[in-house]
Amino acid sequence: MTNAAAPAKKGSSLSAKVKKWTPVYLMMIPGALYLLINNYIPMFGLVIAFKQVDFQKGILASPWIGFQNFQFLFQTKDAFVITRNTLLYNIAFIFLNTFIGILFAIFICDISRKTGKKVYQSAILFPYLMSWVIVGYIIYAIFSMQYGIVNKSILPALGMDPLMWYNDPKYWPAILIITNTWKGSGYGCLIYISSINGIEASYFEAAELDGANKFQQIWNITMPEILPSVITLTLLSIGRIFYSDFGLFYQVPRDSGLLYSTTNTIDTYVYRGLMKLGNVGMASAAGFYQSVVGFILVLLSNWVVRKISPDNALF
Amino acid sequence: MALKKKDRGYQIAANVIMALWTIFIILPFVLLLMSSLTDETVLLNKGYGFFPEKFSFEAYSYIFKSGDKILSAYAHTIFYTVVGTLVNVLITALFAYPLSLKNLPGRKAWNFYVFFTMLFSGGLIPSYMMWTGTFHIKDTIWAQIIPSLLMSAMNVLLVRTYFATSIPDALFEAAQIDGASQMRIFRSIVIPLGKPILVTIGTFSGLAYWNDWNNGLYYITQATDLYGIQNLLNRMVSDLQFLTSNASGMSSDAMQTLARTPTTGVQMAIAFVAILPILILFPFLQKYYSKGISLGAVK
Amino acid sequence: MNKKRIFAFLLAASLSAGALVSCGGGETSAPAADSGSTPASETASTGGDSAEASDSGETASSDGVYQITMCYPGPADQPDYQAVMDAINELTMEELNMSFNGIQLGFGDWTDRIRLMLTGGEKLDIVPTYATQASAYVSQGLVLNLLDWNGTNLLEEYGSGIIEAVGETQTYGGQINGVLYGIPSQKEAMGTAGIVMRKDIVDELGLDYENWSTYEDLTDAFTQVHEANPELNVVVGCNMVTKFYPFDYLNDSFGVLMMDDPDNLTLEVENLFETDYYMDMAKIIHEWYTNGWVMLDAATTTETSSNLMKAGNAFCYFSPIKPGFLAQEESLTARELVTQVLYPEWDVIGSDRINFVNWGIAHQSEDPVKAMEFLEFAFTSGEFEDLLNFGIEGQHYVKMEGSDVMVTYPEGVDATNCGYHLAVGWALPNQFVGSVWEGNPEDVWDQYRACNEASLWSKAYGFIPDTSAPEIANIQTALTNVYNTYMKSIECGAVDPETIIPQMNQELYAAGLQEYMDEKQRQLDAWAEANGVS
């Protein structure tokens, strides 16, 4: 919106500005306050990452120990494996979820049969209802070595020997990526559907009159219109690129040690090493590290976006 | 969009792909349902399958043995979901609308303010200390509604992006020239035109509330009748996991305790019970999605 | 006019957010009542009897009576929870002039929840500390030192009854760096374990199990069982390599004290994974696995062995064995079973077998002296134990005829409809002062005590290493990850130990095993000197 109230007199501009924007700021109060309380205040806890906490003294009075809490993240060769896994999986997820999300959103919006549309739209969100624990059970029902559907029914039917799914890491990148797409693609898809629904129908009508084919319409109308949403979602995902969905990487492979080379991520590593031992300092350090890396990556990508298309930058 | 003859091929292709994907998505649900209906002995001996050799409703009768508890947990979850979602959508929209105004003073800083919370978090302990120590929400109904879920930074940014791109500037200009206040613009332009995204984030928020068990886990210890359905489910499951994974260090009394907790079939049944209302409700929500918007309607 | 609207709207909006946020911001005692009333009206339609539970017992604190808040684990779903709490409250008022507020937590989450409650600083007095958390609790100051609270020896001054009830050895056993973090729950601790088999198959094949005592002895029998029942899993369950063990874990598996020679107990820390014991056991299990006797999904299943047995697809499994075990197991699996103790000489006790769940005092306790007095009461009162464990006499359990200690369900009540039945004596303070549930031998507690005493106690009993120093904690994390990578697959025989164990050792050393063991040894030596052990 290019502004409207374009102040006629420069002199009273400040008071006019205050008058104009006050109601807008007031609207922001509940949300801003919630973030302040729910997110910003607890951030004082980040100091735990640099302390050896003693609750009898209180968090703030506990001794500082510099970066000692961070050491465990880097000291062994696991560091490479978990970082690589986390990054590669996330990159794969970002690409796949974006691609499938957009593709399905376009299909769903274009499909003319009402019932079909409804069914598909519900279906893509269904897996969202499942907790990872349950997804873990389903995957187990399929791949369990002795009783799973694949080993018990499918492979014998094809005349093949049963495979040791939970003992061999090579199957898991595929299983995890497919599982994640199965469960997660609906999210982006729904966002894109709403973006497409927000496009003025007249654009398409005009394009149709000009004789543009489906592909041209998608490329020239739909894509540019949903691009801002795609960029926002992608930037947000990049910010969390050092995080991994704990449930996916822990519950789904059932914590099978033999699979760690392809299933261990930063989060599962931290969980296994710390949660049972209860070291809050190290857990906090891990989170801090993940955030900082994500933060730097987002600043970089946001900077790039701003260079290319300032309107689409996050901030 | 009108269907043109030349689009036939495209329509068929799109339908086929979506139908396949739908089957791919539904099959695991069927497997889940079947497993929950399979006799426990068969499940352990023959494994999982789409066509159980022997049906059994034992798992479900186990769950509904504590019937009123389940119903009350449903009722609570529905209440949390409805209230939480409404508030969520409202404050998200109120927050996102100003952020979408390109000339809002301090816009960048505000965006950053929102975005920053997605990356950095103080962790559970300080949040817990604040919610219980300062706000005393422990064992109250607020515990299930307020922490973490009331507004999501991600949703704010998505809604902001949507408002900024999908609502034509011309409308705002026209409204301002008419002398409409910001509040009025918000109510009569932003909300109706933003419906697709608001319904979408409402869905996400609703699902987040429906699926949430963390708040109950952290902030409900004694008033367990405030548990939602996921808390009941999760407690059963986590009891079992703890006992199984620590069984080696335990006495055989512990093993007895373990043997009394529900097993696989029951867990699957519980999972199914937890999502059932949503499966029933979903089709009714549908109509809100598919509505495209024609600009003519708003003025 | 527009403004009015804006404000009306904003007011509504911020009320919904603001009111929620600031709710209950008043005095500490208020929230239960205060927030109870608000939601009650809102939830009326959604079945809101929610408020009642939250103000349980909070009332008492006003008139100078101290309220004890105690957390304990137990199975979910106790409909008569409130009635039992009231009964306990009555008892503690009478005996101690303290009111009681019990917080029952689920097994799966009690460690997480208690940690949160301890760090959050809310009202809390008595907490159980789970073995693996102890070191962190102590180093983070989450629980009090019972031997030294600002110069006061709480245990000896206000809780000496405990020493009498559980004996000196156990009372003082839960110390880390001189900090006594808790008193262990009383249970059978001996390390006796054995094989549990289906009687029908044993009879059919005429297996002479009475003479078995090692894994080697089982091989022939397993061969026969497998031939006769090729579809059956011969053995189920994981952790088979270390199910029977002649060593003191010293709190984790990294650096242990071998105890396979009872006449020559040492204080020398060794790497378990380089011992012949470990390799030999692992080889046998791997052989079983390659023969197809072990359940393929052993490492990943969440089914319990007894459940698999019940379902009929297992011939045997290994389990700790204690007095009254067979009868319990048979009722559990609904099958006739036989058991045979294996490696009877490896009945060892180290600190970790005694200190499983230890009861201590939260750092935020408002009155640690009162808390200590209560703890003494909890460890000595049979009435308290029975109430907490089995509920109200006459309603949830009754004494069996002709016995003072045996109890069972009342007429017409059973496991499915009993309003309160925890039966987690092993995780409550002192089941030895409580009643004995039907099906156990009447003198089961004495038998437990006798068995505990007859076991081979580690020289290092009473020593728990402190692994909280950042360098050591760092190494421990790395070691834990290596261990997790290989442990399950070795334990259930899925991998060849001759290649995998050396590989695991190499990785463990790379992760700092030597340094870790050295630190353990150093602490152990210091402890031994201080306690006159040699």
Question: Would you write up a description of this structure?
Answer:
- Chain A has twelve helices and no strands.
- Chain A has helices at residues 13-40, 78-110, 114-125, 132-143, 149-157, 172-197, 201-209, 214-239, 246-250, 260-263, 266-275, 280-308.
- Chain A is flat.
- Chain A starts with 12 loop residues before the first helix and ends in a 7-residue tail after the last helix.
- Chain B is an all-alpha fold.
- Chain B folds into two domains: 1-56; 66-291, MetI-like (MetI-like fold), CATH 1.10.3720.10.
- In chain B, α1 (8-37) runs antiparallel to α14 (264-290), α4 (67-100) packs antiparallel against α10 (195-211) and α12 (229-245) packs antiparallel against α13.
- By secondary structure, chain C is an alpha/beta fold.
- In chain C, the strands form seven sheets. Chain C has a four-stranded mixed β-sheet with strand order 8-11-7-12, sandwiched between helices. Chain C has a three-stranded antiparallel β-sheet with strand order 3-14-6.
- Chain C is globular, with a radius of gyration of 26 Å.
- The termini of chain C are far apart.
- The chains are: A mainly alpha (315), B mainly alpha (299), C alpha/beta (534).
- Chains B and C meet through α2, α4, α6, α9 and α12 of B and α1, α2, α3, α5 and α13 of C.
Short recap of the structure:
The complex is a heterotrimer of chains A (315), B (299) and C (534). Chain A has 315 residues and is an all-alpha fold.
Q: Please mark out the parts of chain C with pLDDT under 50 across 5 or more consecutive residues, or reply none.
A: 1-61
What is the CA–CA distance across the termini of chain C? 90 Å
Largest interface: which pair? A-B, 104 and 118 residues
The unreliable regions of chain A are 1-10
The portion of residues assigned to helices of chain A is 55-70%
Helix-strand topology string of chain A: HHHHHHHHHHHH
CATH-defined fold name of the domain at 56-187 and 350-464 in chain C: D-Maltodextrin-Binding Protein, domain 2
**Can you identify the CATH superfamily of the domain at 56-187 and 350-464 in chain C?**
Periplasmic binding protein-like II
Strand runs of chain A, count: 0
Please state roughly what percent of the residues of chain A sit in beta strands, choosing from under 5%, 5-15%, 15-25%, 25-35%, 35-45% or over 45%.
Answer: under 5%
Number of helices of chain C: 21
CATH class assignment of the domain at 56-187 and 350-464 in chain C: Alpha Beta
Number of domains of chain A: 1
**CATH H level, superfamily name of chain A:** MetI-like
Please state roughly what percent of the residues of chain C sit in beta strands, choosing from under 5%, 5-15%, 15-25%, 25-35%, 35-45% or over 45%: 5-15%
The helical percent of chain C reads 40-55%
CATH topology description of chain A: MetI-like fold
Based on the coordinates given, report the CATH architecture of the domain at 56-187 and 350-464 in chain C: 3-Layer(aba) Sandwich
